[in-house]
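The step that takes the researchers longest sounds almost clerical: writing a folded protein down as plain text. The outcome of that step, for a single protein, is printed below.
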Amino acid sequence: ADLFGNIAGGLMAAGRAGFDLNRSMESLSGRLNAFNQDTAVTAEMLAWAREEAAKTPFAFEDIGGAIASVIPVANQLGVDYKELVQTGELLSALNPMEGIQGGVFSLKEALQGDFVSISERFGLDKHRLRELRDEGVPTLDAINIALSEMGVTMALVESQSTTFNGRLDKVKETFVDLFSTFTQPIFNALSQ
């Protein structure tokens, strides 16, 4: 009886995780649609978020949340949201305690001319950033140059995916994604 109870409990937990992913996906889609007013563009963004999550240590929800966070700044400055998210990933690799959300938050502030957060949270030299900016280097490029000078590249981010924890997280995310597919019809019915 304990075995069947454990199996049933595990299936319930997996189903709940899948249902929660469907809920997050609906919320994220709504946020992205509000910014770009185009469901095809939103679908493209979500597909890119899935691809990015598959090759990095970040969960789909983290990447999706980062996209939603940077879209207003990307639109305002005419910068590709993918570049902003990937720079946020680099910052997160530099200081994992801040996470990708902390990275994109500091990045948004830096793009608006405030280097305090990116300097204090991630150790980037604000004098070097100002020097590059004064030389005419766009702020996003200056941040990426400073990160590269510190040895922080996408290779660091991708290498974190090959650690035991990175692989374990990907296995968990695969199962959640699978149960999300199974629970989608139930979610759609309830969402109506």
Notes: The radius of gyration is 19 Å.
